[in-house]
From TrEMBL, chains A, B:
This is Succinyl-diaminopimelate desuccinylase. One of its GO terms (biological process) is L-arginine biosynthetic process. The keyword Secreted does not apply. Gene3D superfamilies: 3.30.70.360, Zn peptidases. Pathway: Amino-acid biosynthesis; L-lysine biosynthesis via DAP pathway; LL-2,6-diaminopimelate from (S)-tetrahydrodipicolinate (succinylase route): step 3/3. Keywords: Amino-acid biosynthesis, Cobalt, Diaminopimelate biosynthesis, Hydrolase, Lysine biosynthesis, Metal-binding, Zinc. Residues 170-268 form the Peptidase M20 dimerisation domain. InterPro entries: Bact_exopeptidase_dim_dom (IPR036264), Peptidase_M20 (IPR002933), Peptidase_M20_dimer (IPR011650), Peptidase_M20A (IPR050072), Succinyl-DAP_deSuclase_DapE (IPR010174). Its cofactor is Co(2+); Zn(2+). Its EC number is 3.5.1.18.
Length: 359, 359
């Protein structure tokens, strides 16, 4: 397949269009990673490393601080919305315009045009963000070469509508099982009903009051919810098992262990016979009090917002690097057929970052 | 396939063995229906009708009362337990020994050996009892030729361990749905959780106190149970629908409409957004106060028991014919690989019926 030429001298909007037209659905990022690597190796002020289809480039100026700018290069499956289309209002339409080739375009523009930043820079381009967590390229780099991701502060250029989103909440998924004894439903008293035994679990969930703690000035919002319930053997059998799957989204002032202990405590007296941790990813503190973050906030302006969903900032957080989301796309249109981005916002985002890194 | 010869001059135990060896899994009853029809047509005191693989024979002596003796001729799938085997203790092993070829043997023996009963007799042999209700041969006859089933009292020779089981409870299955609004579980407050909304339903079920009414001297035992619960969209989505399937087993002093009204009332204030009747079969009163039934009880002896599960006696009840279960098999072994019957009990059952019909 013929791919567009990445020309880093184009403005960020035009470069976004090239990146969108350069198809790179999850699992099919090699050609784009090759092209990005080639362009970055042509820049004398950067050293470039590659691991799989993940490309990491950095300046080595011996500055007091190092900042990481990161973005994933894959997209969700294309839905008849490539090649991109620029309309008369300066809106660029197509798969990945928001999530997140506009952010990748900003990364590439900063890499190409800021050879002497006031902070050392690390650019991370990674694959497979839109699929399972165990395929995530940033996770692979963090495991194989954590030193490549070292820094004082990281910005993920994920769509955040040009606002700074700090940290992220953790997510814990637990299976709560209740037990009973099977019997024919015509003689129910010979058995014991596991679905009825789940009544206290649902009552506890319905009555739960989530916390809304303020951390670094950001108000988080926890949530404890059943996301699935399953029980039943046949239409005439008293069921001997019922499983409630509960998802706890918790603010980053709780550690993973604290979150787990909290959920155990909430359901301690609800007749749970089995408690299985199905999935768990810790949160990330916003880290906005770090000097690099404070300078960043001053440069980009606006009021930071908390990030409720789990994002890759937590991977940086786990490496000891405070991180935020800040990107030109609008997350509302991510993964949609009518995905689009206002090109002026891409340029604005690039200017704000350049101002922060050169002032 | 070669089939055994049905010889109605054999004793009831030996005839049961022949019937067991005459394979007739549900849907494959034609050969057995043919053989039964042939044997009955050879008896001059009976008139015989056939509808599908259902055979109905009757005496026409102008007696004051008419009694129906009914049994199904199909079995569940054979599980390496045919041909039958008679052990040294007089126990006959094999598929259908209990449920209910021993009962069919008793019907055939009475048909062959009681040409001048004190009550007119109707013998019903029907197919497809062990499968879906809409295939049940007794149901087909009831619909096409209800006059064939007319009578003052009916005995189904289903396995009841030689005890009289009166009437049967009704069964009503209802789907109770709750609704919510989907949202990402990281922003649960943007949606509304349909599983949490089911909490009052489960609480009501867990607290429900079933009635145990005494009818015609028999103590029934109702039950209201969840037999299935389902809800959930994905591990990170607040679910917008949850369905609790409830099975109400009710005593035969309630009509179907009363049972339905009761269930509606129980869950009236539980946030149910949709109430769907999935399945409903009314109960049957034991009818033990009817003179024919009283004489029957006196002849067979023992203490009648209530029937908790739904059985074909309800089909007779719907036609205005009081009915009971009374058969030589032990229901505990029905549908099992080690199904068996004590041959002495078959003979005993035959003698009790003959005594009632000739005294």
């Amino acid at each position: 397949m013929d791919h567009p030429v990445l020309d880093l001298s184009l403005d960020a909007g035009a470069l976004t269009a090239r990146l969108v037209d350069f198809r790179s659905e999850s699992g099919d990022e090699k050609a784009l990673a090759d092209a990005i690597e080639r362009e970055l190796r042509a820049l004398a002020h950067l050293t470039v490393d590659r691991y799989g289809n993940n490309v990491v480039a950095r300046t080595n100026l011996g500055r007091a601080e190092r900042v990481v700018l990161a973005g994933h290069i894959d997209t969700v499956p294309i839905a008849d919305n490539v090649p991109s289309r620029l309309d008369e209002d300066g809106v660029l339409w197509g798969c990945g315009t928001s999530d997140m080739k506009s952010g990748v375009a900003v990364q590439l523009r900063i890499a190409a045009t800021v050879p002497e930043p006031n902070r050392d820079l690390t650019f991370v381009f990674y694959d497979n963000e839109e699929v399972a967590a165990d395929r995530n390229g940033l996770g692979h780099v963090a495991k194989a070469h954590p030193e490549w991701l070292a820094g004082d502060f990281a910005v993920l250029l994920e769509p955040s509508d040009g606002q700074v989103e700090g940290g992220c909440q953790g997510t814990l998924r637990v299976l709560l099982r209740t037990s009973g004894e099977r019997a024919h439903s015509a003689r129910a008293w010979m058995g014991s009903n596991a679905i009825h035994a789940a009544a206290p679990i649902l009552a506890r969930l319905a009555a739960y009051e989530p916390r809304r703690p303020v951390i670094d000035g950001l108000e988080y919002h926890e949530g404890l919810n059943a996301v699935r319930i399953e029980g039943g053997v046949a239409g005439n059998v008293i069921p001997d098992e019922c499983t409630v799957t509960v998802n706890f989204r918790y603010a980053p002032d709780r550690t993973g262990n604290e979150a787990l202990a909290h959920v155990r405590e909430v359901f301690a007296d609800c007749g749970v016979t089995e408690f299985v941790v199905d999935d768990h990813s810790g949160g990330a503190l916003p880290g906005l009090s770090h000097p690099a973050a404070a300078a960043f906030m001053e440069a980009v302006g606006g009021t930071p917002r908390p990030k409720f969903g789990w994002t890759d900032v937590a991977r940086f957080s786990a490496l000891g690097v405070p991180a935020v989301n800040y990107g030109p796309g609008d997350p509302i249109y991510a993964h949609k057929r009518d995905e689009h981005v206002v090109t002026e916002r891409i340029t604005h985002c690039e200017e704000r970052l350049r101002s922060w890194l050169t002032s």
